[in-house]
Protein: Hydrogenase expression/formation protein
Organism: Hydrogenovibrio crunogenus
Amino acid sequence: MSQYTDLSIPVSVVGPGTQPSEEDGMQLDYMKMPNDMSVFNAPIIMDDNIESYPVVEDLMNQLMNALTHFKEGDDAVRFDFATFEEKDIQFINKFLGEGEVAVIFNEENRQLRIQETVLAGVWRIAGHEDGNIIQAIEVGTVPVAIRNDTFAKANSIITLPKEQPAGTINAPSLLTELSDKSFAYLVGDEAHVVNLTLLPQSPEDLDMLGEYLGEGPTVFLSRGYGSCRVTSTNLKHVWWVQYFNSEDKLILNTLEVVDVPIVTQASIEDIRESSGRITEMVESVKTNDK
């Protein structure tokens, strides 16, 4: 049985290719991308008032304060509530709803399922770490674990064979380029992008890229204007970034050397907008007889 059955979080990562092929639930296959263009989803109409959940009301006040004071360059602000009762957690999930970006983070001793809420820059996090259940919210451009830990165990360089594998066209030179850029990259540097869509590729090229880059622990699924899948590799700061059209066809396939691809991040403008929206949302679930 999957170890996530006891976690209350509305992460939108279900669908073809996302269900576990093994009982531990950790194996990810290719995911069929959403075939509809995402539009703004208003929060679900609540049938209860927030005053009935005093710990949640206090948490939302702290969240409002964090959003109000968040500035560009700030570290993410985290609120843990694993000790909350189930009814409180369910209210939080329903109130915050689901945004456009979902994240899966899998390591041996830590597994996280992360969903951006309807408030851009507010991330709902659930999972396990060393046997402990995680229930949390973070305010930031990207969750801390993703920014800090995605490449903590990744390779710094790639060692290629002396002879070019048969059938390859450009994979060896691309891997050399990516290895050099990865080794030299410093957080904050401009992204280095390799557009594979524009390059001739043989099946052997793709096999070699996949073999030598490997798979990292993080997968982003974004359903903004179109569909995007962003996957970390096992080479530091190197990500696969793939865009799909409404017919589920790959239309842009790139490799990026960067700390976190910009397409996955909330902007400071998004967070400022969320600061205004959360006040309205909280007011909407308060009783009117005060």
